[in-house]
Specification:
Blueprint lengths: L1 E8 L3 H12 L4 E5 L16 E2 L6 H7 L5 H5 L1 E2 L5 H11 L6 H21 L3 E3 L1 H4 E4 L2 E4 L5 E3 L2 H15 L3 E4 L2 E7 L5 E7 L4 E11 L8 H8 L7 E2 L8 H8 L4 E2 L5 E7 L23 E3 L18 H9 L6 E5 L18 E4 L2 H8 L3 H14 L34 E13 L2 E2 L6 E3 L5 E7 L16 H23 L5
Parallel strand pairs: 1-2, 1-12, 2-9, 4-7, 12-22, 13-19
Antiparallel strand pairs: 3-8, 5-8, 6-7, 10-11, 11-12, 14-20, 15-19, 16-17, 17-19, 18-19, 21-22
Helix pairs in contact: 1-7, 1-13, 4-5, 5-13, 11-12
Length: about 500
């Protein structure tokens, strides 16, 4: 039997933040990573590395990115994103159901947490390619999500592993946490883990669960999300199968959050079943606000311009799943080609181009007369107005359903391009309930002594929808809180480091 102050299950963003925070409190820390070393990093590795946090203006951004030059700062407009707005955004997209205390905790701790990460070696950069457009000679950022870790998800994961390992955090690869141990007083006293060779019992004074949701578990997806969800593609790691949630529930934790909800997006129809570590998040297709989205019958089925893509992309995957053949097609004309994100230009893209709408339909396998009718009706419904990709411009359609509320431009300038997508699941919303110290709660809403949680398996933050970049932020915030609190509890209960 081995003994540690703190054992962290999971080696993504949340788990490594927890491990580092606990180590900084003097704890002896072990991280269990189910994947082999060459597949480490959980879902974090497959993200774009974007973090949402409140900021007052360019001075806050320059605190986070100190090498931003004066010339560069003068050529951009980052605006401001107050705490109140971030709170309101997270509550709005969750239809008011998100745990208000948990949202407030994430919002108020977000900027201190990303600066804490920067001080330890995570580097940040502005999202020029994804969250900014030129307007009046200035690059204007929009949507409350303007920075990402250098190198995206891979860069973030690699940096966090390097920082944690330099700090003395131990990592055990190919080690699956399978059950929690408790002592005669009911305190969580360790964890049982399985390797290819044996089952290990690891004593700990505190355990942090940060091993993801159940998005890679087809049976649990069908059970909780509903029929058809076993058929979707998984954007990230194949190792997030709900182990941490199951272990905690078996030990008496209360289930919490939106168990039939998830983050799911438009994902290339020919992407592999699980995430590709070379392609990362580039199978996603998120420039749909500047075109139209149709199914195989050529029919539109969503308001592509309902809001900034940051506030719609995570729920439109579900809408695609409901379409025939679980497929959809994003249609653009030449006027907006320069606005498409970098993921539209990779070699591994399911794309067709044609000089006519009928020709495009034939190339993509869409019903030709249906698509031509849809485009004619859409073009006739577009109202006059100024098109502005950096704002909710109100340039809309009238007289068609569904409407397009912003960025409505006629599809009339060849060549026309179409991209075939399906539903890709990112993570699930149901999980465990935690308090403001990231302690896991039982059915009587009492903290389970010695047990903490962070990351995707925390329920209560997301319902129906998602504000882009808030997942990594919440994972880092709660990971840091969990690690610090777990280390304090470990020392208070007497295990010597």
């Amino acid at each position: 039997m081995q003994a540690y102050d703190v054992v962290v299950a999971g080696a993504g963003n949340a788990g490594l933040c927890a491990a580092l925070a606990a180590r900084e409190q003097g704890a002896r820390v072990l991280v269990l990573e189910r994947a082999p070393e060459h597949l480490r990093g959980g879902n974090t590795y497959f993200t774009g590395g974007g973090f949402r946090f409140p900021y007052a203006g360019i001075d806050d951004i320059r605190r986070l990115i100190p090498d931003l030059s004066d010339a560069e700062a003068a050529a951009i407009d980052v605006g401001a994103y107050p705490e109140r707005q971030m709170y309101d955004d997270m509550m709005r997209v969750s239809e008011g159901l998100a745990d208000q205390g948990l949202v407030e905790l994430v919002v108020t701790r977000a900027f201190p947490t990303v600066t804490w990460m920067r001080d330890r070696g995570v580097r940040w950069v502005l999202q020029y390619g994804r969250q900014a457009f030129e307007s009046s000679g200035v690059r204007r950022f929009w949507g409350g999500l303007i920075t990402e870790a250098v190198g995206g998800g891979k860069g973030l994961s690699d940096a966090q592993f390097a920082i944690a390992e330099r700090a003395g955090v131990e990592v055990a690869y190919e080690t699956q946490a399978t059950a929690l141990r408790s002592d005669e007083r009911g305190r969580i006293s360790g964890i049982i883990a399985r390797t290819s060779e044996a089952t290990r019992t690891i004593e700990a004074r505190a355990v942090v669960l940060a091993c993801g949701g159940f998005e890679a578990n087809a049976e649990m997806r069908a059970r909780y999300l509903g029929p058809g969800w076993e058929l979707v593609k998984v954007r990230g790691t194949r190792f997030n199968i709900g182990d941490g949630i199951r272990m905690a529930l078996d030990a008496g934790a209360v289930p919490y959050g939106h168990w039939s909800g998830c983050h799911a997006v438009a994902w290339d129809v020919n992407a592999p079943p699980y995430g590709n570590r070379t392609i990362g998040d580039l199978y996603q297709k998120h420039s749909y606000p500047f075109g139209i989205v149709v199914n195989v019958r050529g029919e539109r089925f969503v308001d592509e311009g309902a809001d900034f893509r940051n506030y719609t992309y995570a729920r439109y995957g579900r809408e695609i799943l409901r379409q025939p053949q679980r497929a959809a097609f994003q249609i653009f004309d030449a006027k907006v080609a320069h606005l498409l994100r970098d993921e539209y230009r990779i070699a591994q893209v399911t794309k067709a181009e044609a000089e006519t709408i009928g020709g495009l339909a034939d190339a993509l396998g869409i019903d030709g007369p249906g698509l031509e009718r849809t485009v004619r009706a859409f073009n006739a419904a577009v109202r006059d107005g100024a098109f502005d990709p950096t704002a909710l411009d109100g340039k809309r359609t009238e007289g068609i359903m569904p409407p397009k509320s912003n960025w409505a431009l006629p599809i009339d300038t060849p060549p026309f391009a179409g991209y075939a997508v399906t539903c890709g699941i990112t993570f699930t919303f149901g999980g465990l309930r935690v308090d403001d110290s990231a302690r896991v709660l039982d059915a009587d809403e009492r903290p389970m002594r010695g047990l903490y949680a962070a990351g995707e398996l925390v329920g209560g933050l997301f319902y129906f929808n998602y504000a882009g970049g808030s997942g990594l932020t919440a994972g880092a915030v709660l990971g840091r809180i969990a690690g610090e609190a777990a280390a304090r509890e470990a020392h208070a209960t007497g295990l010597s480091s």
